[in-house]
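Entry for the shared binder. Reason: the reviewer on the internal report wants the predicted structure included alongside the sequence.
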Amino acid sequence: MSWIVTNMKWIMVVSGALTCTMLYAAIAPEAALRSTFGETLDGPLADIVVRNWGALIAVVGAMLIYGAFDRPSRPPILMIAALGKLVFIGLVFSHGGRYLSQQAGVAVVIDAVMVVLFVGYLVGERSKR
């Protein structure tokens, strides 16, 4: 865990940059859905919801990058990011293997690694106190 605590700045920068790539969904919602899930939604409401989803995920990525350089803000940022990633993982798994063969499966693995690193940091920091 000390390795995670020592390198958390760069872990957060890389995690934040990867998370920010979902800004793509705010720019091209139909293409983002197709590349991530292999399916798309139609209509103006789907467009609004997917653009909002992409923007909110990108905001979490930006928060991770900010937290990399502002140590006091790390715990709440890491908790929020981990919780959001766990919800996404749970929702993908709630559909069985339907989306795991798509890019969403890759996102689940990467998000799971991020969650483990974030929790490792939080536990490591707490045990130092």
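Summary line for the report: The first helix runs from residue 2 to 20.
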